[in-house]
Amino acid sequence: MKENKIIKLIHVAWRERWSDSQWGINIKNVIPRGVSGDVYNLSDCILQQALIGSTANPMVLNYLKHSLCAHLVSYAAVLRRIAKYEHFDRIYCLTSLLDFVDSILDGVSCRTKAEESMLPGAIVSFVDWLLHIFATITTNYEMNRELSAEQSYLLDQCCTVIEKLVKNQFILAILFVGRQEAPDNYSKIRENYATIKTSLTNSNFTPSHPCVEKYLQQLAYIDVHHLDMKILDVQPLPEAVSYCVQPLLAVEVLLNPCNDTSYYVAEMQMLQRLKKFSNTRLFYEIIRAGFVSLSSAVTSHDTIWGAFTFFKVPQIIKQLHALNRASTEQTPTDFIPEVVEAFEMLLEDNLLLDLMDSKCSCNIIDYLLNDWVKQHLVNEVHVKHFATQREQEASLLLQKREWGNQTQSIINFIIRAEVPLSGILKTLNTDYNKVQEALLGVLCQVLVGNSFDLILSVATVEGRIKTFVSRLIQCNENSKQIPGEVGKPSIIRSTLFDVSFLMLTSIVQTYGSHVVLTENGDSFFEKWFRECMVERNKPKNPRNMIAMCDDNIVDELLLTFSKPDTQMKNSNITWQDICINLPGVINHVLISWEKETLSAADVKNILDNIKRRMFSFSVCASAFLSAYMHSVKDKELLKPLNMIQQFLTPPGNEEMSSQEYLKERIGLSFQIIRKIQYDAHPTGSLKSRSLTLTQNLVSQNPLVEQFKEVWSTIADHGWVTPKGAQVLESLLHAGGPAWLSSQLVEEMLKCKYKKDMMKTMDIIFAISHLDIERITEALLTNVVPSIINNRQGEDINEPQSYVLARLCVYCVISALETRNQTIQKKRSRSHDGDDHELNNAAKMRKIAGEGSDNSCSNDFLTENNLLLGSSLTALHASNMRESPTQLREPLQSSIQYIFKIFQHFVASDELSPKIYFVYQFITLLVECGKDRIRPILKLMPANLIHNLLKVMLTEDINVGLITRLYDLRLNTGRQAAVSDLCLWRNIKLKQQSIQL
Questions:
Q1: Model pLDDT, residue 859
Q2: Which helix (H) or strand (E) holds 616?
Q3: What is 290-314 written as a DSSP string?
Q4: pLDDT tens digit string along 301-358?
Q5: What pLDDT, on the 0 to 100 scale, is given for residue 389?
Q6: Phi and psi at residue 597, in whole multiples of 5°?
Q7: Above pLDDT 70, what percent of the chain?
Q8: For residue 701, with 0-12 CB atoms within 10 Å meaning exposed, 13-18 middle and 19 or more buried, which class applies?
Q9: What backbone torsions phi and psi does residue 811 show, to the nearest 5 degrees?
Q10: Are 554 and 580 in contact (CB under 8 A)?
Q11: If we measure between CA atoms, which residue out of 642, 588, 648 comes closest to residue 615?
């Protein structure tokens, strides 16, 4: 009914030649107040009357334009109606329509929700219509090889409108949304584009309008990169040195030395994306990080850095190269060009190379490259080239070392340790009954000097530590006492039991049972360690140990150990029984000593007799005493401490010569007992050899002073030493993530210049990986809200605000990409594991190296398995950092909390530094995280960006940012995006009208 009235009104207006204003007054008498003309198809009615003849009626088209300006009809309805016009033979009507569109494109916008829902589909239909006209003209030219004047004019108009479309960011953004909303219609655009491209190619026709072919392709294959976005993370010149690679590796090698290469690869890929490094730059930073960390290593346990640099780094580089290489890229088979370029960069750092040559007593480049030739990272030509460049400096340094009679290079020992490791694993895998004596010699030889540390370091970085442990456990099982066995076989068996037990205890004490032992292992050692051995953050109940004891065995052991002769020749008690029942013996002795029924001399005699038989017994007794000390008051610690100290008293010279391999065993047992003693009662610092990564660093100074001391060293050097990483981990446990992150951020905010601030931010980001999830949570829920709320505008302005936002974003992205995996367990903490992923990884490693000594790792593949290894590695690494669809706690809660804070900030109408911080955080999140941060953006409150747009200047927020914030695959995401885009457009138009 209304449509008929509208059509009659148009006829009257035409007959009486109404002006635009007369039309506007009279049409409002037909359309109710506050109702859109779209409800009554006003645009359809007007265009239907305007396009009746062979030419368009300009007066009626002006009525449509007036209706648009008066908001009686929507742009969406008009464009959708124009796209329905199918009389492509009426060239004059088409030219009039294109002229009309050209005049209204600059004002395209939306005012209501109903209009917003129509606009994406209308834009897609209109672009399809426009390309259809273009395709019709080019097809006609292909057939006739000429165009009429009218067709040429129509083509020029098409080109003009297409250019306007492409240069209008709002319309492009709506088209991008429409591509997701109407995929079938959008596919027609691509079909028309294909037709145009074919016709232009076949006819060799070139449109007179410049760049129109590029514009057509952009419309047909619209992408988010075509939408403008203000970039905050601008780095016009690459930083001379990266300050995050070395600290990050220092932390990861401290906490996760046993991890597969793919773990480190995923970590480096994440860093490469954040820092926008090329492969060459990334390889250079990784090699340099290894050298810097190795140059700062001071204790024997730091040999793991030598093993990491020489054995793990090549594998990391090979996997990174395989993952980052394009499928069509052809690379040489005998070297990797980016590695060669990385070494060219490294050779410019003469000071570092001189220090390494001097410290390691060798030409470090020669050592490294000679091994890398075998792995096809470089070839012989490159080795000669680099050796020539370093020859003079290296020879002078080595001469000085020789004149000073320096010791042989630690690098020699590290590289040589790989061969003995393989030999030990092979020997341990041989038939036990055939090689008992040889096996004893091999294992005891390992304990000479620092060979054990070196072999463990190599086994750790090569991923063979679990194989080593499992075979030692089997050796220990085979060495359990057989009743009735006497003579030399019994002595060899007992010594093997003792050595394997001590080696296993030392390894598990260093790495943690969750890293190297299976969860429900049923061997004697695994059961004993699970029930009786004290571990950091895993206290044991001494009463449970006593409950496991057999009273009859305890009584017999008490009687036996009270006598001078402790050979127990006629006893049926086995060594493993003694280990289990020693807590009962020690508890009885301790209680008797406290009640003074035993004198100190009697206690000393019993303890000496215990350790005289086997040093494993000393360890078992000390483990119980440590657990006991955790359960009593401070005033009751003296006697158990004295008992542990008694086990650390070296035997006399006569006794030292009476047993085979006694010196090696007693040295290792003392090392284990000192760690136990330190864990139970840390009264001072340990000797460097016995200080391991499982130990807290203890100081009488306040935490703040300890932090300032270690931070001063880090700030001066620009890197984190292995010892510095240990101290920071200890401070994290002592002060908690909120305290440590607060201290770190304060150091960053103290910097006066942006360059220093960015350097500090990189170091802090790397240090945060001591526990990235908990530190990120602390940043978002404690540190940042407090700073932004209480201090912004005083000492928190630019660039502090930007750098703080960047730190938060980096931490959020890294925490997001850290998968829930057992492989990521920190030695200092226990985490829930993902058994499924571990099983898959084990299957991959089994396929990659069936039956070899290093079959437990996918890091060291043979040449025949190189292709297989690359595919498995790619799969493993993709799983490693695959963005989850749903966030885990505590990240999800902390993200929701910070977004609530942001929503509170943007509720104000006043632009403030708080508002700008919100903008920086969200923009950097999108820039740095790209598609990977979708799970985070899903948590964003519905009106956050809408309110932010109302407060922020539109020059800062562009359509590229808005479209990247929403998941356009979902209807709700598209609706939110279009709503924000329309608000952005209206604000923009309002500013332009004010300027006019």
A1: 40
A2: helix 615-629
A3: HHHHHHT--SGGGHHHHHIIIIIHH
A4: 567 888 888 889 999 999 999 888 765 566 777 889 999 999 999 988 888 888 887 7
A5: 79
A6: -85, -15
A7: 84
A8: exposed
A9: -65, -40
A10: no
A11: 648
State the amino acid at position 486 in one-letter form. Answer: V
* Among candidate residues 583, 650, 585, 639, the one with its CA nearest the CA of residue 611: 650
Name which of 68-77, 640-649, 734-743, 793-802 the model is least confident about. Answer: 793-802
- Helix axis angle for 575-594 and 615-629, nearest 10°, is 50
Measured torsion, CA atoms of residues 561, 567, 570, 573, in degrees rounded to the nearest 10: 60
State how far the Cα of 357 lies from the Cα of 295, in Å rounded to an integer.
Answer: 10
Buried b (16+ CB within 10 A) or exposed e, 724-746: bbbbbbbbbbbbbbbbbbbbbbe
Closest CA to 703 of 670, 733, 747: 733
Split at pLDDT 50, 70, 90, the class of 250 is very high
CA 835 to chain centre: 20
Exposure on the CB side of residue 290, measured as CA atoms within 13 A: 25
Give the helix ranges, DSSP H, for 168-244: 169-181, 183-203, 212-220
The C-alpha R_g of the chain, in whole angstroms, comes to: 38
The per-residue pLDDT for 837 is: 37
Give alpha helix (H) positions in 41-167: 42-50, 58-69, 75-82, 91-104, 113-144, 149-167
Our measurement of the distance from residue 173's CA atom to the centroid of its chain's CA atoms, rounded to an integer in Å, reads: 31
pLDDT tens-digit profile of 919-939? Answer: 999 999 999 988 889 999 999
Tell me the C-alpha to C-alpha distance, in Å, between residue 740 and each of 247, 700, 723.
16, 18, 17
Q: Where are the alpha helices (DSSP H) in 768-907?
A: 772-778, 784-791, 800-817, 835-848, 866-880, 891-906
For the chain, helix (H) and strand (E) counts, in that order, are 51, 0
- Is residue 478 within 8 A of residue 575, CB to CB? The reply is no
Residues 6+ apart with CB under 8 A from 623: 532, 533, 534, 540, 676
Burial of 520 (0-12, 13-18, 19+ CB in 10 A): exposed
Q: Give CA–CA dist 349/50, Å, rounded.
A: 76
pLDDT band at 955 (very low <50, low <70, confident <90, very high): confident
How many Cβ atoms are within 10 Å of 272's Cβ, its own excluded? Answer: 18
**Cβ 783 vs Cβ 263: under 8 Å:** no
**Whole-angstrom distance, CA of residue 813 vs CA of residue 811:** 5
Cβ neighbours, 10 Å, residue 513: 18
- What's the CA gap between 479 and 495, in Å, rounded? 9
Tokens representing residue 346 in the block: 């490294």
Q: What is the mean pLDDT of the chain?
A: 83
The answer to whether the CB of 309 falls within 8 A of the CB of 294 is yes
- HSE-up of 951 (CA within 13 Å, CB side)? 24
The structure's pTM equals 0.84
Handedness of CA 264, 269, 272, 278 (dihedral sign): positive
Residue 538 dihedral angles phi and psi, to the nearest 5° = -135, 75
d(CA 147, CA 144): 8
User: Is the per-residue pLDDT at 839 higher than 50?
Assistant: no
992 or 868, higher pLDDT: 992
Q: What percent of the chain has pLDDT over 90?
A: 41
Q: H helices within 651-799, ranges in order?
A: 653-656, 662-680, 703-717, 722-735, 737-749, 754-767, 772-778, 784-791
Q: What is the pLDDT of residues 28-49, one digit of tens each?
A: 888 888 788 888 889 899 998 8
Six-digit token string for 392:
């003079």
Long-range pairs for 340-345: beta carbons < 8 A, 24 or more residues apart:
340/378, 340/382, 341/280, 341/283, 341/284, 342/280, 342/281, 342/283, 342/284, 342/287, 343/284, 343/287, 343/369, 343/378, 343/382, 343/386, 345/280, 345/281, 345/284
Distances (CA, A) of 868 to 74, 266, 823: 59, 19, 22
